Amino acid sequence: IVATACPLPPSPPPALRENTLPVPEKFSGELDKCGNFLTQRALIFWQQVQAYATDGAKITLMVGNPEIRSVADFSVDFWILAVKTGWEEKALR
Predict the structure, then answer these.
(1) Which residue, 14, 17, 65, 85, is most buried by CB atoms nearer than 10 A?
(2) Where is this region: Disordered (predicted)?
(3) What are phi and psi of 78, to 5 degrees?
(4) Can you give the residue ranges of every domain in the chain?
């Protein structure tokens, strides 16, 4: 009987080190700055895929900002008024 060597399993790939960005300023609650706030968060999600791989991780970053509730309130108010107007979705966009 000839003994043959078993090949070793392949090594796992090296861990990727993600770029870390500083957490941007908290949202001030001013609606004209909302787009910038959301863009900054989107860039963090895009560059730190592993850190924000789950919806829960993303939500934690967003909700960690106490002013985000005012944005949520605005959204709820908007949709309540939208239903009352009876406008079609195309007009609301």
Answers:
(1) 65
(2) 1-20
(3) -60, -50
(4) 31-92
